[in-house]
Amino acid sequence: MANSPQAAKRARQNEKRFAVNKARRSRIRTFLRKVEEAIASGDKEAATAALRAAQPELMRGVSKGVFHKNTAARKMSRLSSRVKALG
């Protein structure tokens, strides 16, 4: 429990940020799952479209501090190589 007004305020701020980041992370995972499903179905056009939609979401997560930039780059690289291999 927070013992000072400052610590109480930081706890409130942390709760808000946690909720925002959790929603953002969930949204990004949904976009990534759509790419995975398109790859699994073997539909290259759908996978390419899903990947194009997922890229800005993932990069937005990086700029908002939800993901590290190298993590996002690794995910994009692996997904794009898998989409490329569908052809």
TrEMBL record:
It comes from the Bacteria. Keywords: Ribonucleoprotein, Ribosomal protein, RNA-binding, rRNA-binding. SUPFAM superfamilies: Ribosomal protein S20 (SSF46992). The keyword Ubl conjugation does not apply. One of its GO terms (cellular component) is ribosome. Pfam families: Ribosomal_S20p. Gene3D superfamilies: Ribosomal protein S20 (1.20.58.110). Residues 1-23 are annotated as: Disordered. Belongs to the bacterial ribosomal protein bS20 family. Binds directly to 16S ribosomal RNA. This is Small ribosomal subunit protein bS20. It comes from Ruegeria sediminis. The gene is rpsT.
